[in-house]
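Input:
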Amino acid sequence: MAAVLVTGLTLSGCQLPTFGAYRGSTSQGQDAFKLWQFFFITGIIVGGFVILLILWSVFRYRRRSDEMPKQTQYHTGVEILYTVIPIVIVLVLFAFTVITENKVDATPPADVTIRVTAFQWGWRFYYPATGKVVTGETTQAPQMVVPTGQSVQIMLGSADVIHGFYVPAFNFSRYAQPGVTASQQRFNFTVLHDGVYRGQCTQLCGLYHSLMFFSVKAVPPAQFQVWVHHLSKNQPSISQLKQEIQANGPGG
Amino acid sequence: MRDESVFLIGVGVFFGIVGLIYWLTAYEDAGGVLLLGTCFLGLVPGLYYYYWYCRFHGRKFFFFGQVGKAVGPRPEDRPDATLAEGAGVVSAFPDSSIWPLVLGSGAFLLVLALVFGYWLAFPGIGLIITALVGVTAESRRGGHV
Amino acid sequence: MTDLVRPALAGVDLHAPEHEEHHGPTGLLKWFTSTDHKVIGMSYTITSVVMFYLAGIMALLIRTQLASPNSSLLSFSQFNALFTMHGSLMLYLFAGPFAFGGLANFIVPIQVGAPDMAFPRLNALSYWLYLTGSITMLLGFFTSSGAAEFGWVAYAPLSNAANSPGAGPDLWIVSLLLTGFSAIFTGVNLVGTIFYLRAPGMTMFRMPVFTWNMLVTGILILIAFPVLTAAVVMLFADRHFGTHIYETTGCHMVGHPNVPAACGVPVLYQHLFWFFGHPEVYILALPYFGIVTEIIPVFSRKPLFGYKGMVFATMAIAALSTGVWAHHMFTTGVVLLPFFSLLSLLIAVPTGIKFFNWIGTMWRGQLSLKTPMLFSLGFLFAFLMGGVTGVMLASPPIDFFTHDTYFVVAHFHQVLFGTAVFAGFAGFYYWFPKMWGRMLNDGLGKWHFWLTFIGFWLTFMPQYGVGLKGMPRRVASYPADLGWQIYNQLSTIGAFIIGLGFLLLLINLLISWRNPVPAGDNPWDGHTLEWFTSSPPPHHNFTHLPPIRSERPTWDYNHPEAPALHHGVPVVGNGNGHHPRDPGGNGSSGKEEKVPT
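Output:
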């Protein structure tokens, strides 16, 4: 009953609390956020019910006398009940998971494709359509520019160890891995509003892991076109940047 | 014996099925091989226990037919067994032995040889051989150190 | 070597105290040469608790570093080494060995009425491998390049020779070789003991649930640990022998559609590691479920509610746990999401059954809230919270944005703190009288519990919040302008409160050492066979045994007046009823087969 009610509420997009998570600045992120709300409320209901049962047992049945309690060991009805109900809940959760997952994970051809290469300890964003490249490391964090409202496909790879591409506000992260081809490692997102969104590496990747920042800037499509066609000269290569970090520490 | 064999064969069957589903849907080799290995990890000892179950109960063990005279289940498998039935020699247990420590120290030196230099392997292997000889002699002699 | 003669009926006193002196050396030499499972169990317990305190100190250093943004208390390198060793010590050297090497080693043979483990010398070897493995891992701190810095998972290729040079990572790898074999030997020993050395009448479905869980854990060890050992051996080969199993150096793969045939596959390491790693999580959980399942019935004065359901739930958890490894790899983008998601979610079902069984046991009981019971209740709350967030993480779209953030850190700490610390120290307080023959102070134990409990919530709840705000795990510093500081400060305060609680445990141990309070054989009115023998138990554990006619022979023996229970059906009455499903028919009350004491 409660689960159905909650489902209805969350899927109709009612203004429920965020429960600490971001509402999601991409359409995929918003789907993930709704699923999060659904799981969280189910968690509160189920967890709260169990907590109340435990608290009740503790306070109600504290030892008051030396009387021997009834030695009940089995009650088949109750046991079946508390096996079947969790199975049903789990299957409902799984169904919504699959629905959301198919939306979040879908990679149809997008308006803009960006090749992202992570390296120790920075990022390189390459726009194959025009040849635009943005590279930066640690405290000189690079910025990825994307058009607002258009779908973007990221093809993610790594030049050395495993990194994690994570933009908290997008409710999404993905490993950048060596040995996994970029055609396998794709995901799409559509940023809904202009703005700058911070990102960070999530997977431990060595000494300066905690400084491996980047940001995503969403701008109107026209402005994006101007930006992406403006090619800057003298972009440092990844190996140049890595040598700099080795020599001078983070921030060059 | 029966519960033990059912338990282990159950492990084998479960991972056989899961492994098959995984193999057919995931197109990923490592997990498939590991699940298959786990399937055998259950099946092999499970069938061994089933063999003993068949022996104790005078049942047929697949196409091998009758594998032994029925002697009935062990006392620990019978809910009505009395303690008197289990009385007698259970097994020979060593009281104390220095050899596990020697063997462990040998293994310690052997793995440290991988890190700090291969010369450490010589005392390591020496200790391991000493311990293996010692533990064998100890078992034959039947006394403690 | 002695032929063990099982004590039979009527108080055949085969191991009277005056014979004790003949059983091997005493003093320090005893600890070096003993093959007695009790001595080895105590060695294991002491060593693993030392590892716990060391790892705890590392946790406090980590938390102190994170209490302020851009902190420079520790260098990045020191910080990375500390969280790597904190995780490695806690998971490989404390939580597992404490359960299956320490408590199970001591308790399981006694619970099934066995004189020792099935392979006593192998058992001793397990301990020595564990001890030398622990020393090996700690040696990393004393090498010139410091300890390993790649996290307790050592993902390739971060753990390869180029990215993690030096002796520290090598020591980490060979330490896992030693402790891995140690765990495998203990697993074999547990399974062998439980299958072959049970006392007459101790059928599989009369074994205490702790023993059941250790059997399942033993099987899980045999499934999981060889895979880890193989994985780290291959890692070592990649580092030093030039193999290309995980190694990709020299291959240009970024953006190339086809992987060159000569290249290694880094993601293989993750598959192998987590094929070990997730069963490992349950190797670290099931023994502790078992401990709680022993304690709650004893302190509720009731039998375990739904014994068989509990056993099957344990099996189901173990079975499912081996099919969910890739839920640690959802964000790799190369695993089959629905398969792993469904199996991971399904683990909630048997875990839920266990919860309801524990509650059903307390229901209408007579709860006495002594220290072991308090810690067990602490476990229930902690594990419930960790379980609920675990269900969230089993859903890939949610995992995508919480993976590798502090949300996950909070989740697995609540799970593992719930099991290894709350349930683990519940077991410690519960069996301490049996191990040492003396009590721990209950009042001080309660203080220990409340400080740990408060500190626990204060430490880990803010981590959920800061994780959702986007703080990644394993970061040595964080920017000041993101509002993460207050969460981290609360967390640090909580960690120090936990530390204070564990200082009280040390004081408690000191008191019991200086002013021992004799425990007696059965201080808690226990159910299982370990409470029938003396504290500490004699050589080969028993001088006599009660008749085993139910899951709780000692209780039956001590409470002939109570209504008895038979297989699956509650019997209301005076207990000498002849139940049709009990073929022996001589009741469970111990009346007809009383053993003179």
